[in-house]
Amino acid sequence: MSTSPDSGLPRKHAAERMCAAAPFAADLSIMAVALFAAYALRYNFDWPRIHVEAARIGLHFAMLASLQIAALAAFGCYRLIWRFIGVDDVPRFVYAVGLVALVLIPVMAPLPAGVSIRMPVGVVILNGVFVLGGLLLFRSFWRIASGADGAGRGRGPLRRVLLVGAGATGNQVLREMLQHQSRRIRVIGFVDDAPAKQRALLQGVRVLGTVDRLDELVIRHAVDEVIVTMVRAPRELIERVTACCERCGVPVRIVPDYYEVITGSVTVNRLREMDITDLLGRAEGVLDDPAARAFFSGKRVLVTGAGGTIGAELARQVTRMGPAHVVLIERAENALYEIERDMRSGTRDIPITTILADAGDTARMDAVLACHRPHIILHAAAHKHVPLMEANPGEAVRNNVLATRRLGLLASQHQVQSFLLISTDKAVHPVSVMGGSKRLAEHVIQALNGASATRFCAVRFGNVLGSSGSVVPLFREQIKAGGPVTVTHPDMARYFMTPREAVRLVLHATARAAGGEIFVLDMGAPVKIRDLAEMMIRLSGLRPHEDIAITYTGIRPGEKVHEELDISDTTADKTDHARVFVGKGPRRPAFEIERMCADLEQVASGLADDDAIRTAILKWVATLDQQF
To answer: Which domains, ranges and CATH numbers included, belong to the chain?
Structure first.
């Protein structure tokens, strides 16, 4: 006789039905014990009387249990996976049990004493308390027994973890770790500098001390890994934690981006290694700017240079503010492909259009603006590499100055509401072609402002950590290759910001622009490039000057040893944001800007050599920056 391959299915389904019925059976037992205990207390443990009332108590149990099981099901308590039940699920049980008691009390109170279904009000209340406590306690014991609060059931050595930061994010990370079944993790405790949190408990895990005791705690508890569970950890704290972990020889990781934390998507697998951006750029500033959100909400926004570091971050942050449509312009095919893939994977509700085009192509951009009719243009397209622009000054003129003017004129013609130019701190008293070309672009947008309804403004900031062509990716490659790490000068220093923080402040300034401003961002203290190299070597688990050499190659053409941050009282005015200022530089009349552009276009498109173009750029900077 042949056996059907499905012959085992009835037994499998029967087992599944038994498992599904187990919660009801457990809860019925708890409810029976709870009702018996309530009557025992109500009758002051008068056992003969309880025996006499047994039949009526049985009737009451059937009635109560039916109502409570129905309420628990209605509030979704039986859809929860027991081993993952946490504090957030407790209200479901409170509402279900409480609702039954609140319904029964006004029903039972007026009934005569002889009515068989009448329950004393005291019994109803006591029963509710006992049932609620029993349900929650039983599920807690089940969770512990199933291993959800332990080290997990995975194979491999047990990892002992210490968490830095006993706040909301720390609690979220701890919950994820306690529920994680595929890794063997034991959370030893928290460290936190807040005096009120010392020796406090989060989900049964204690705050063991402050960050100053981190070395001692790592050694005493044989910690294998330290995790920073703070999304806005100050730079100084991260430096202390990193230095401690380096001394103790343990790795350190950190929670991901702020937006992943607030959306609840932090998991054990998404914790990442500490990076140089954490050491130099953790100050978050304004995290939620209602004015910026209102400014961009429902608007059509066009971003040029969208494949670059700043352009891509502009696109990401703008989409979080609810625009009607985002148009991304980029002339580098692969960069456009990458940002399109990134945006479409993370944004499904906002229409996104990607266009392969040069922002300086007048005919092409005229067609784009006519088709998409943007309300706001964020102009991030530019050449930014200082030595390359020294070698190719004509390209700096064409892309940074003349293309900005063409796009600005088109914005005015198409009645764009706001036009923002991304500028640089190298535009302050520039000595390089790149800095000079960006300073002239600032003059261009100031001259355009007021000639139409379009509001033009610019925002200056310094080096962006991790951007393409910057020093951080270069140092990573050199460290990976075994060194040496090359620094141009021992005293070379730069201002650094993370892309996220720079763009957040850019959008803050754009939303408040009246027109014609050059906003200047306070980027904190400058960082020596030599110190940056040493920090990156240490983050790689190596020792600077021992495992990896640092060599000095000399200042390159167009570079300054120190960049200038022009936010003194004489050169800039304060705004409503502590880190955003408005420059006080002179605004030149439109006819001078037209002369400048005509001269540069002639020089850059003719047969003039590179020295003549450099001379023309710096001559016009000096001419336009002089006081009236």
So the answer is: 13-145 (no CATH), 159-274 (3.40.50.720), 290-625 (3.40.50.720)
